User: What shape does this take?
Amino acid sequence: MDICRIVSYLKTHLWDDDEPTLSRIAQEHGYSAFHLSREFKNQAGYSIRECIEALRIQRGIEQIMDHGMSVTDSALAAGYSSLGTFSNTFKKHTGVTARDYPKEASKAQAVLQKIANRDGLLVHRQSKVTTNNTLSVSTHYPEGYRSNVTCVGLFPTAIPKGMPVVGAALIGRTSCTFTNIPPGEYYLLACELRYSANPARALRDNLRQRVERKLAFPNDSGATFALDMRPPAPQDPPITMNFPILTMRHLLKNRNS
Assistant: This one.
């Protein structure tokens, strides 16, 4: 199944007046709706519905950040008829409300610029558990490329929606080892944060990478992965979780604790 072609089709036609249905998408690509739905999720690591939802939230972010639209107008432009549904989904994806997004994004970028040339490791855990599960990760950038902050995390799906189960912000470094990973199946995702990036484009043009297969713990405990960071690819779903804001909040929390 050509995941790149299907995702590109969604990115192109989602905003048509005649919005594509699952049946229409399947027919366009020569599959039954059932086969498309099942195999797309198996290969991509997320469902077509989740991809469409992420594309809609990205559209909402763009309307707010690039065009200064109100939350209500952004919701309509993103294809939501219910402001409440848009607001709830927006916060679930990004970690911040649509109303506060511009202010928080700008504030986060300013905080990131202040930690330039520092060295540190910020670790996030969704729950406090004690296990023997570990995972070592190193990130590798193109020759001559200087990374600022690298965010690495384990997520339930290959779309980084919401907080990772376990995650880390690598400041001035490129590797880490996760410990006490809860039992379960996760995708390993990574992306960079640039100090100088425009807040409106910080998560659109950044380098990223993932491990294609789902990792299972405890089976994959002790594994080591080297991630070659790359530019965005056509088949990539949007990065909607605002990692600069998440990093800023952890920095401020550690400073106040």
The two ends are 49 Å apart (CA to CA). The domain at 103-254 is CATH 2.60.40.1120 (Immunoglobulin-like). The chain has two domains: 3-99, 103-254.
